[in-house]
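Researcher: Here's the sequence for the chain we discussed earlier.
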Amino acid sequence: MTAAGLGPWPLRIALALSGSLASSVQLALLLVRHYPAQAGLERLYAAVFLALAFFVTVLLWALLAPHSKAVGWRAAAWLLLFSPALLWGGGS
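Model: Thanks. This is the structure I predict for it:
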């Protein structure tokens, strides 16, 4: 149920949150596996903070889209970039 007067904003927010959260989790996994630091804790910190900054950036970029269809594409485009890297290059 949406409140009267909100229009498509609940859908836009849900699309933007889900896409940017999934993309930032994928980025964090890639950074934990492949970040060029010797200490594991440094890789973990880099993954958490860079993924958080990425999450906020993608969320804002998606929410500034002109319509709901563009919100979905902007939020999920990063999934297309990170998924092959996780599937085929993430085993090391």
